[in-house]
Amino acid sequence: MPFQRENRPPARRGRTLAAFSCLLTSCATFRPLPPPTPEVPLADWERAGDGADARDTVRTGEHHASAPALAKSASQREGDGPYAPPATTAPSPIPGNTACLGELRSLDVAFRESAPVVGINTPVVLEGRLDGIRFYAPDHRAFVADCRLVLALRLITPDLRALGVSEVRFSGAYVYKLTHPGRMSMHAYGLAADLHAFKIAGTLLEVKHDFARGAGCRGSLPVLNQIACRIRARGLFKEQLGPDDNAAHFDHFHVGLKPLPGELAPNLPLPVAAKPHHRAARVTAPKRSVQQRSAR
């Protein structure tokens, strides 16, 4: 029987060629990741320690105060009122890896270590209230994050409780995504959280409605402004954005930590940007009467 060429559709032939080319080249090679959100300037410790192991760079008791000491109320600090930010830029006070897990245990945080999560160095799942404060999402998702983020949030809970906060609604902690400019988001590393609302004395206050824009951190302030100012005074978060910063944060406070030197895993896959789903309007021709159809 003479040889007959297989008549496959062009699309199927293209897929076959692409699969064959994967055998000749490394299809497992990922494109280099964009840099972590550089909107906030790097501190000296971040620039100098690039490539170093986080466990060697930030040792418990050597470069940062203990967690109980950091949990001291911001109102007891010296400076320009209770909301004065730190005067100097110091190494990150939030340790990583096993040191972070040990700090969480010392503060009696209810959590469990998680199975590996893409992008997160030390993944944990918050399993209860954080110092008496409930963190919840409208879709009931679990609070999955890097241990460092949970520890940082635990260190600001004394300020939240002092203002009467009993619940915090968040929309996203770990989300493997890019930022709008196409850079890696701190959410992709489990190092950021978006806080939308705070329940105080039985009343739910939302950032988009109850935050006073342009009020600063002096004088008599609405309670949500006090929360933002107290968080800033802590100096724990490298990223802190809200309604005063840009339109993208009109309805929430974004708080994020910068990765420790050597903390990010190499060869992480590039997040796939979500494509908007625009369903084309279906145009339906008007039905014709029997007389119109028979007249053709």
What features would you describe in this structure?
- With 296 residues, this protein is an alpha+beta fold.
- It has one domain.
- It is 25% helix and 14% strand.
- Strands 3, 5, 6, 7, 8 and 9 form a 6-stranded mixed sheet that branches. Strands 1-2-4 form a 3-stranded antiparallel sheet.
- It starts with 9 loop residues before the first helix and ends with a helix.
- The relative contact order is 0.15.
- Residues 2-6, 10-64, 73-82 and 277-296 have low confidence and may be disordered.
Secondary structure topology:
Layout: H1 10-24, H2 44-48, H3 54-57, H4 67-70, H5 97-106, E1 111-113, E2 123-126, E3 134-136, E4 143-146, H6 147-162, E5 165-172, E6 192-200, E7 203-206, H7 207-210, H8 223-234, E8 239-241, E9 253-256, H9 290-294
Parallel strand pairs: 3-5
Antiparallel strand pairs: 1-2, 2-4, 5-6, 6-7, 6-9, 8-9
Helix pairs in contact: 5-6
Individual helix count? 9
Q: What's the shape?
A: globular
Overall pLDDT metric: 73
Number of strands: 9
Q: How much of the residues is beta strand, in percent?
A: 5-15%
Whole-number total of structural domains: 1
Following the backbone from N to C, one meets helices and strands in this order, namely: HHHHHEEEEHEEEHHEEH
- Major sheet: size, sense and barrel closure? 6 strands, mixed
SSE class = alpha+beta
